[in-house]
Amino acid sequence: MSRGGNTGKGKSSGRQGGKAGGKSYARGNAPIRKATTAHKKTESDEIRLNKYIANSGVCSRREADLYIQTGSVWVNGKPVTEMGYKVKLTDEVKFDGRTITPEKKEYILLNKPKGYVTSTSPEKSKTVMELVANASKSRLKPVDRLGRNSMGLLLFTNDDQLEKKLNDYRVEYRKIYHVELDKNFKAEDLEKLSKGIKLEEGFIRIDEVNYVEGASKKEVGIQLQSSKNEIVR
Fold this sequence. Notes:
Number of helices: 4
Helix content: 10-25%
CATH class of the largest domain: Alpha Beta
Shape: elongated
Distance between the termini: 105 Å
CATH topology of the largest domain: Alpha-Beta Plaits
Number of strands: 16
Strand content: 25-35%
Largest sheet: 4 strands, antiparallel
Structural class: alpha+beta
Strand order of the largest sheet: 5-4-7-8
């Protein structure tokens, strides 16, 4: 008897599959039903409404809470006054009748020249905001500040969390200054400065101070850690 022959009426043996319900299957090729699992929502799928509004550049989170309470914010055609309400990035959010979208975080570095005040308020004097006015459509704010006659890198961002963290007076960040004087800085004064200085704001500890390599003794590099602004002017 051949291996592919029939062994009985209506039955077949061998490696060829039989028919079942009008469909034929080869051995091992029967359809497999894949188990389906429902997609679970994660925190990354949603964002708090006040954060969504703040990210859009309209206002801060705290101010957004006030607008939500007064019914100025609508989500998908309905007013929302619930604190802590979460939305998806695909939801339609309107603020005072205007559709808003959360803007991406932007970080801009400016090499600040002399003669500009570090301020976001309109003043008679020139402000650094004039220098970055065309850099972005986002609501930018300067992190820290440099005096009118100071030059150096100044960070602007619409990242409220980063701006708040870096401007926290309780945290001391490392700061590096390149100071140019109108006369040579004496070696004995360099030694005194290395021990720290006492200002109206309190005692400032100097981590490192030295002449700038390759420059005259009119130029000094200073590294310190402090939460205070405008220590070197």
